[in-house]
Amino acid sequence: MKFKLLLMTLMGLLFFAPLRAQDVAVKTNLLYDALLTADLGVEVGVAPQWTVELTGNLNAWTIDDRRWKQWNFQPEARYWFCQAFAGHFVGAHLIGGQYNFGHLGTDFKFLGTDFSKLKDYRFQGWMAGAGVAYGYTWLLNKRWSMEAEIGLGWIYTRYDQFECRDCGQRIRRNVPHNYVGPTKAALNLIYNF
Hints:
Elements: H1 2-16, E1 24-29, H2 30-34, E2 38-47, E3 50-59, E4 62-63, E5 66-80, E6 87-102, E7 109-110, E8 113-114, E9 122-139, E10 144-162, E11 170-192
Antiparallel strand pairs: 1-2, 1-11, 2-3, 3-5, 4-5, 5-6, 6-9, 7-8, 9-10, 10-11
């Protein structure tokens, strides 16, 4: 309930706050684009040094028998050290979504998560979490800019595990998992209105 209230408040700030043209930016994360993940973000200035952002992405493709389907959204509040939309910033973000992964040729462990299991099993579930971020935005001209951002945080997930990618029976149900580590990596191309 608290999460829904926070999301509704953020949406209200994005769509109902009095805006000037230079207080709105639309962006795409080039890292996600390179991974064939559709991505779109909107950032709105709410004070001289504060902005709020809402990004979402969708990957609904199966390529070469590999399944990496997911959607998620990530609202973020940002504090800019000099002025909004330029230079250094820090942020706090939430993340939520669903996923369906399987038949991926990964063979590594990272911060307590064994990604090698994605080779022989399919995992389907939901996730929610929070984190903090640091970034920098370079102004290219009046309308265009580039931004780099990295975030760290915690994600809680519950998933079902299946025997294989498309077939097979469920072998584990409603398994909890906690992940702590990178929660955001972005190289954004931005258009400023």
